[in-house]
Prior knowledge:
By secondary structure, the chain is an alpha/beta fold.
Amino acid sequence: MVKGLKSAFTMKNQEIADIFSTIADILEIQNENQFKVNAYRKAARALTDLNVDIEQLQQQDQLSSIPGVGKAIAKKIDQYLNTGKIQKYEELISEFPKGLLELLKIQNLGPKTIALAAKKLNVQNLDDLLVVIENGSLSKLPGMGEKKVQKIKAGVDYYLSSRGNILISQALTVAEEIVRHLAETSNPEDISIAGSIRRMKETVHDIDILVASKQPKSCIKNFVDFKGVREVIAAGETKASIRRTDGSQVDLRVVSPENFAAALLYFTGSKAHNVKLRSLAKNKSLKINEYGVFKNDRKIATDSEEDIYRKLGLSWIAPELREDRGEVELAEENRLPVLINREDILGDLHVHSNYSDGHHSIESMAESAAAMGYQYIAICDHSKSANYANGLSAEKLEQQIKEIDSLNQRFDNFKILKGAEVDILPDGALDFPDNLLQQLDIIVASIHSAFNQNPTERILTAMNNSYVDIIGHPTGRLINQRQGYDVDLAKVVEKAQQKGIALELNAHPLRLDLNDVDAKMAKDSGIKIAINTDAHATKDLNFIEFGIGVARRAWLEKNDVLNCQTCQKILNNKRKKQDTQNEMLEK
DNA sequence: GCCGTTTTCGGCCCGACTGTTTTCAGTCG
């Protein structure tokens, strides 16, 4: 087993994390001590982020070494691992209406109101809630009123319509449009996208924009009056929130220019990262908030994020790392990874052309890639069984090879690699014979059909083929649309390590597959990741931005990424790999 | 419920906005 790798057995970690998370939800609605609630939340998060098998820690009597896990919680973990149950959880859940937990996900509706509605109106689930909203009884409760109920209703509508997840690509488009609008109309001294978009999360709940201005009122006005606003949720002196016609929520915060850096840090989050910074500040007798770092109520210089981190004894932490996954501790020791940048990417190893289901010619794709400063591109069209995608016959592929050979004579300092995205068939065989594969530079092997037929075994079988360089979109998920196939990534990574095969980080914003957590584990095991766009048109080559975002969230450095290598190096390594495997076969 | 070089008890991040109040509770980020 590859060391430090998450796999099927760490499912237990997540099962226990989910239980603690539910305990926290129930206790919160029951108005239990908020710090106790937080303790369970923290433990749940720690277990989710844990990279080792919890049973292993149990056997070594090391459960309490997990930060946030003390005696009581360690005992509960122990109980779960020994009996499959946690008594406290069983007791709580047996007498608690399960439908109430879902209500916590509704905006503007928190634990206090849920508890009130449950107690006074016997609300037990979402349906009950809708009834008491409609019949007016909710608004008559003490502390409630018409407007509050309207807000809760809006929260329910939002929850039911979208579940609140917007793809990073969509969110970024909206955010950039609003930033441009405010830049043109409001004369800001500074402006930035903040929040989870700046951290490049794969999906975001809302869009955060921060402005530095001496005229906050006019900024707010220009913001709420902009086109596409369906509803103004809030609009105060320095802060406003809108809902747009596309359903997205946008929050604007306006600060004075001298507070911009502190505010940017604050509104970039994540919440967990911020909490960590605040408690760190407190330990140093400092206070940090969105206005700066303070010592005895006196602001100490905070002109930039770098400066603020420095005042806390930390090196600057890239936004993509700010999730409280150990980045603060490393920043204290000045040992943060040197994250991969756009400039480090030398080529794209998985793009399509109009030979299969792409929209543009090989030549156009190559010219666009060259214009982006790339040194190479691999044309990897679909193989013959991919009928839905106009997969190539053997004859068509040979024709493509000739075209690429001829095109390559026209380019200086740029190379078109001959490749294919070969289907992994239900029996694990590849969709092209070896005599075709051996003519190609890059083979991406992917599953595109029969998702529920032993995906792990099929991928492992395909990896036995020495021509395979990359496993394409390894889990097959489509964000917000389709769960991935049930693949045991630990086994795939282990095999990739043995065979010198890379896993893809597919940069298409609907895929982002591997995700950040899986890519980090792959990195930790020492295998290479290929950040590919899977572009079906020239403009799709820009998806690389999202792939790099996820890669940075996964702590990836230049050395971890296959397409940070020159194409000469990639091809040399491929040759060496094949020679070694042939020698082994001969023996 | 967790934690500790202010250490076994008393803390636990902090501020804006809204709506319902008439000084504050709830929610959010």
